[in-house]
Amino acid sequence: MKKVNNIAVLTSGGDAPGMNAAVRAVVRTGNYHGLNVYGVMYGYRGMLTGDIFPMESKSVANIIQRGGTILKTARCKEFYEAAGRKKAYENLKKFGIDGLVVIGGDGSFKGAQKFSQEFDIPCIGLPGTIDKDIAGTDFTIGFDTAVNTAVEAIDKIRDTADAHDRLFIIEVMGRDAGYIALHSGIATGAEHILIPERKTDIDDVIDQLLANERRSKMVNLIVVAEGDEFGGANEVARHVKERMPQLDTRVCILGHIQRGGSPTCIDRLIASRMGYAAVDALIEGNNNVMIGIVNNKIQYTPLDKAVKAKQKIDAEWFKIVKILAS
Ligand code: ADP
């Protein structure tokens, strides 16, 4: 017995490449099971304003390869308030919606959790964030694309750094999580990687740069997560310039290019699989869980446990960075 008949899907909070692939999977899997599927524009804001429309297979044609989200995304203050959520509920009810798929980060999950506890509309979350900092899943939609964008950009920076014998300090996204920095730094052969999860002794970094200078190794890349303890690449550069004014030091902040672009194969794959699993979860009567992939298996995690998680980053990675950059 199907537990739902009319489901809605929305994208909320920070955007991430692959969200479109997830929307496509929800719509087409829903249609396959004979459900009516509705799209909600601009995340929770569209629930409040009633910006809701029916979707069919055709509505999601030609989007699997597109970055951004056709449903748009937004942050919505009113959804923090019970009155706002009630208005949202009433709008969904006008369409007979009895199940909701929320693609977003942990903020969006907090909203979904409150909503599903207050009203009779079950909610399923899909982790859409470039930071890969959500507990209960090995993958988040958008991380692989963001990290590959960073790698491509850093490779280009290395070329120019090499031509001029420069030190480049490159800032990548990651306010609370250093995964983009760690993965892109290792993949581009960075000399140092600074992330929020790990304390860095700036004197060690400078001592190593001085040692490199003594052996005429002039090209160095330092990859910094925006949320590192020093406050980003400009601050790290200030420390380095103070101690090593002779070095030709440049800063490059990659910024929003990391959010855009065509999703990689991995992001399309996990978004498709998670979107498909979300509809299954609603049909089976699940509520208030996030769909994750752990050890290549779909896993449900209660939304209140699928929070931003500082994961332990194995110290061995930093040994590898040091050895391989020597
Ligand atoms: P992300 O989902 O990327 O973490 P945000 O933290 O901005 O992004 O959350 C997206 C939206 O989810 C918010 O604008 C708000 O509408 C809703 N939301 C976030 N936290 C809560 C909360 N504690 N209660 C109710 N709604 C919330």
TrEMBL record:
* GO CC terms of this entry: 6-phosphofructokinase complex
**Activation and inhibition:** Allosterically activated by ADP and other diphosphonucleosides, and allosterically inhibited by phosphoenolpyruvate.
Per its UniProt record, the required cofactor names are:
Mg(2+)
Question: Which residues are noted in the entry as ATP-binding?
Answer: G14, R75, C76, G105, D106, G107, S108
Listed GO biological process terms: canonical glycolysis; fructose 1,6-bisphosphate metabolic process; fructose 6-phosphate metabolic process
Q: Which residues bind substrate?
A: T129, I130, D131, R166, M173, G174, R175, E226, R250, H256, I257, Q258, R259
Top enzyme class: transferase
Active site residues according to the UniProt entry: D131
Q: Which residues bind ADP?
A: R24, A25, V26, V27, R28, R158, G189, A190, E191, R215, K217, M218, V219
Q: For this protein, what is the EC number?
A: 2.7.1.11
Report a single Gene Ontology molecular function: ATP binding
**Which keywords appear in this protein's UniProt record, sorted alphabetically?**
Allosteric enzyme, ATP-binding, Cytoplasm, Glycolysis, Kinase, Magnesium, Metal-binding, Nucleotide-binding, Transferase
Q: Name one Pfam family in it.
A: PFK
Q: Where in the cell is it found?
A: Cytoplasm
Known pathway: Carbohydrate degradation; glycolysis; D-glyceraldehyde 3-phosphate and glycerone phosphate from D-glucose: step 3/4
Positions of the Phosphofructokinase domain: 6-282
The protein's annotated catalytic reaction(s) are: beta-D-fructose 6-phosphate + ATP = beta-D-fructose 1,6-bisphosphate + ADP + H(+)
Domain of life the protein comes from: Bacteria
Chief location of this protein?
A: cytoplasm
Q: Which residues cross the membrane?
A: none
Annotated residues for binding of Mg(2+): D106
Role description: Catalyzes the phosphorylation of D-fructose 6-phosphate to fructose 1,6-bisphosphate by ATP, the first committing step of glycolysis.
The cross-references to HAMAP family, in alphabetical order and at most eight, read: Phosphofructokinase_I_B1
Q: How does it assemble?
A: Homotetramer.
Q: Which family does it belong to?
A: Belongs to the phosphofructokinase type A (PFKA) family. ATP-dependent PFK group I subfamily. Prokaryotic clade 'B1' sub-subfamily.
Name-wise, this protein is ATP-dependent 6-phosphofructokinase
State the organism's lineage: Bacteria, Pseudomonadati, Bacteroidota, Chitinophagia, Chitinophagales
